[in-house]
Design goal:
36% of the residues lie in helices and 21% in strands. By secondary structure, it is an alpha/beta fold.
């Protein structure tokens, strides 16, 4: 039975219990579901060619053996079979393959197989997200078949492209513009056409990457009378009701001496965001739309695994998508210091409030990934909630693991990709370290601290502008997502600080070790800059500038 038929047949309480009942599970009930589904997956994964490529003849019989025998994995462990799409080697037959960025410049993309069971669970959990996004309290949600969703999603083969297909199976929500038309449009064309249709029909739902939602929303704030480039000038016809709402909103904005905002024209009842750096955009999005976005957590490999509720107090994980393990922060640090070290994990019911963890996932329903380090870090912000009336952990997404710099959900820059860009640019760079930092406006960027080769200083008139331009060119050449950041969002994600020759050597001498290449602590960056100020030496002092 489709969800929209259930809307007519069942009460809100009955539907809430079916889709959102996991929120009030006892911890032992949640873990009972986890263990049962993992046992089912253990009947499929170890005996598959994919599983045996990792297990090498071993077959775990219990969950405890599974955690002992199966090593923590990364995409490198699966790439040979998955990138060649060897379906017969998988635990279950895939219905389709989804792709995303892997490692810009080094590995352009990675793919993940989706089974029917995975898609069914994905669909169920997406409806759960929709219900919770429209809720204002327990058992109270607002979903209608006449609602409209502004299309701000990447199309298939990206995971967000599944959303319209999954909704189509369950409810006749109308996407603006229609999905078939949107797939043939550019990003800008979709926005213009979507708002044009929204002015006629209304917009009740809005979902996308936080950074993209902000960019699209900013386009709407340019709707000012007399602006030829404003969005309203592109809307040749709107309904009399919408035009009346627009005129009332304009008068109100003049009285309050502020620009027209999306909330003046549209009354969203469902606002969902995904991806990284959402915390940088949530406050602004709430001011623009008058409703705080609900964060969901989803990924190409694990599907949709969690979301916030009406309280916006943190993400709750769904019990039926993946088996959850967590690497504590101290274990993460040991592993970063020694890549050969195998970090230990704790289970979902063993996390502690305030703890920081890297998540490890085993995908249920015939999924390919087992004990998989997807590369995301969470903080447990509480065990139990009086607002939701539960006893289970809730989490806050922090960022990608320190070895990866992800900017606004678009880039995945690693040490390998930076080394590759430097190599291709042929710039005389001796040492470097990179850190994800934020502007005073709370916008993310990559800050590259660079030391040039001493022998090149007398022959090369190196300037920060040259470095910025050349490295920027090679990052764009290697990583299409990096280019999209600047093209679509208007963000220049690269900032460079040039330090004196000898700075990195001085740091190593003073602290007994090299500074970490990717995302060192802020105090370590300060120590490096202290060495730059007092220890660094160089012949061409005029090149030492700050961006």
């Amino acid at each position: 039975m489709r969800f929209q038929e259930k809307l007519r047949k069942y009460s809100k309480k009955e539907l809430w219990d079916e889709y959102c009942g996991f929120l009030t599970l006892k911890p032992e009930e949640f873990m009972r579901i986890q263990r049962r589904l993992l046992q089912e997956q253990m009947e499929l994964w170890p005996s598959s060619a994919l599983g045996q490529s990792i297990l090498k003849g071993k077959y775990p019989r219990t969950i405890e053996e599974f955690r002992q025998i199966v090593p923590l994995t990364t995409y490198d462990d699966y790439a040979p079979l998955l990138l060649s799409r060897q379906s017969k080697s998988l635990p279950a037959d895939p219905v389709l393959w989804i792709q995303t960025t892997w490692e810009g410049g080094v590995h352009p993309l990675k793919v993940a197989p989706y089974t029917k069971g995975m898609l069914d669970t994905f669909k169920h959990n997406v409806i759960t997200c929709l219900m919770l996004a429209t809720s204002r309290q327990k058992e109270d949600f607002d979903i209608n078949v006449t609602d409209h969703m502004l299309y701000a999603l990447a199309p298939l083969p990206y995971a967000t492209g599944l959303l319209p297909l999954l909704f189509a199976d369950e409810i006749d929500i109308e996407f603006l513009p229609p999905v078939k038309e949107a797939m043939d449009m550019s990003f800008k064309e979709r926005n213009i056409q979507g708002f044009k249709l929204g002015m006629k029909k209304g917009i009740e739902y809005f979902f996308g990457l936080g950074s993209v939602l902000y960019y699209v929303s900013q386009g709407l704030t340019s709707m000012q009378e007399g602006e030829r480039k404003g969005l309203l000038g592109k809307l040749r016809s709107v309904s009399p009701t919408t035009m009346g709402r627009y005129l009332v909103a304009k008068r109100k904005c003049r009285e309050e001496h502020r620009p027209l905002l999306p909330k003046d024209l549209f009354q969203l009842k469902c606002f969902m965001c995904a991806g990284t750096d959402n915390r940088c955009y949530k406050d602004d999005l709430e001011k623009l739309w008058g409703i705080r976005p609900m964060e969901i957590f989803a990924g190409t490999e694990p599907t949709c695994i969690g979301c916030e509720t009406w309280s916006r107090e943190g993400v709750y994980f769904f019990p039926d998508a993946c088996f959850y393990e967590f690497i504590p922060e101290r274990e993460m640090e040991k592993n970063m210091a020694d890549p050969t070290y195998q970090p230990s994990t704790v289970l979902w019911d063993e996390v502690v409030a305030g703890g920081v963890y890297e998540i490890v996932l085993t995908v249920f329903k015939g999924g390919a990934f087992a004990r998989y380090r997807v590369g995301d870090v969470f903080r447990c912000i509480g065990i139990g909630s009086k607002t939701e009336g539960n006893e289970i952990p809730r989490f806050q997404y922090i960022d990608r693991v320190p070895q990866v710099i992800d900017i606004a959900g678009f880039t995945r820059i690693t040490e390998n990709s930076i080394n590759q860009a430097i190599k291709l640019s042929r710039l005389p760079i001796e040492n470097w370290t990179a850190k994800k930092e934020f502007t005073p406006q709370n916008r993310p960027y990559m800050h590259l601290y660079v030391e040039m080769e001493r022998t090149m200083l007398t022959t090369s008139a190196v300037s920060l502008q040259v470095l910025q331009e050349q490295l920027g060119v090679y990052f764009k050449y290697m990583d299409q997502d990096y280019q999209d950041l600047k093209k679509i969002l208007g963000i220049d994600p690269l900032k460079i600080t040039l330090v004196k020759c000898g700075t990195f050597a001085a740091y190593r001498k003073k602290f007994g070790a090299d500074i970490r290449k990717m995302n060192p602590e802020s105090c370590e960056i300060n120590d490096l800059l202290e060495c730059h100020s007092h220890e660094g030496i160089g012949r061409r002092g005029q090149i030492y500038e700050w961006v």
